[in-house]
Amino acid sequence: MKPAARMRLWGMIRKESLQILRDPSSISIAFIMPVVLLFLFGYGVSLDAKHIPIGIVIEQPDTATQSLAGAFESSEFFRPRHFDAIQSAQQALDKRQIDGIIWLRNNFSTRLLAGNEAPIGVIINGVDSNQANITQGYIQGTWLAWLEHYAASRGQPLLIPVSLEQRVWFNAALSSRLFLVPGLIAIIMTLIGSLLTAMVVAREWERGTMETLMVSPLHRGEILAGKLIPYFVLGMGGMLFSVALAVWQFDIPLRGSFWLLMLSSALFMLVALAIGLLISIVSKNQFVAGQVAIIVTFLPAFILSGFLFDINSMPDWIQFITLLVPARYFVAILQTLFLAGDVWPVVLANMGALCLMLLFFFFLVWRKFNKRLE
To answer: Which of 28, 172, 313, 344 allows an S-S link to 32, with CB 3.0 to 4.6 Å?
Structure first.
């Protein structure tokens, strides 16, 4: 780069950097917003089901029924309440005071000691289908564990035709926090990259300073680079801050390479910056640019990236739309690097998709931004 071009570019970078420092909202979006979102999702939002309120109805208390009730009481997944009759338990279920009922009838122990089937009655509130499935699975697991303990205490083997030995990889504790926090970094970077740069060109039009830039000796590439570089540095600073919080505050393991994380984050940040800059060039109004940035970037990233909702469970035509969402690829990279490690087929495939998106959006930015009044 020639010295004159270098000086022009440095002057443009300095101008944008001073605007960032004089605008508290930019610093807030880059550093305060990640703290709020990470603490909100890290501590306040959980997809884990624990302390589920259930009712236990024992028609004829004895040693066996008390032992089974104790298994539910000692489990961290349940918060049992005892009822004398099934009718009172059903009333509590109707009032949403409990989410399920364990009903041990008066012939439970008799049939159990006789070696016959001794079924327990289970009634679950199915208004929330996901919660109902989780509750049903926990009840079956507690019931099976109690049967094994009961058979062992009597010196008898538990006759089950299939013995299941399961292993959970990458997230052995099945903690939703380990799943949510890495994906949240992609949402934060989407907001930082697209929302901040959506204002940069629109702000010049509203303040009437775009004409000054157009008559200056700055070339088109120098204007674009001068506007993007400060926000790229700001966005990467927000990313590093978010990663530090995830690792040290929320104990999220980073099993992959830190430098691979930096490279993929820089690639995604450039894509987000390009999208925000394109919105700013087209809209020429800060309010409109901000609204469009939220609708076009944040909402798809939140809903269609796999951050909260499983993409494979979506209809085929929705899955096709997710291919157009850059955050989908970055969420996959983050969850892989944090929880699984350097799984190169996953990381390289998603980085390749981000590279194609980067070229496409920068091509549109280059075509749409011209040094002339229209």
So the answer is: 28
Answer positive or negative: Cα dihedral of 318, 359, 264, 203.
negative
CATH number, domain 52-153, options 3.90.220.20, 3.40.50.1980, 3.90.870.10, 3.40.1710.10 = 3.40.1710.10
**How far apart, in whole angstroms, are the C-alpha atoms of residue 198 and residue 374?**
19
CB atoms within 10 A of CB 327: 27
Closest alpha carbon to 201 in 227, 231, 175? 227
Strand partners, 341: none
Every domain range in the chain assigned CATH 3.40.1710.10: 52-153
Closest CA to 105 of 173, 58, 36, 144: 58
CA–CA separation, 13 and 352 (whole Å)? 29
Q: pTM for the whole thing?
A: 0.81
Taking only the tens place, the pLDDT of each residue in 243-270 is 999 999 888 999 999 999 999 999 999 9
Q: Measure the CA–CA gap between 198 and 273, rounded to whole angstroms.
A: 8
Return the structure tokens found at 293: 């940035």
Specify the 3-state DSSP secondary structure of 54.
strand
Which pair of tokens denotes residue 214? Answer: 């157009």
71 touches 146 (CB < 8 A): yes
Residue with tokens 């083997």: 157
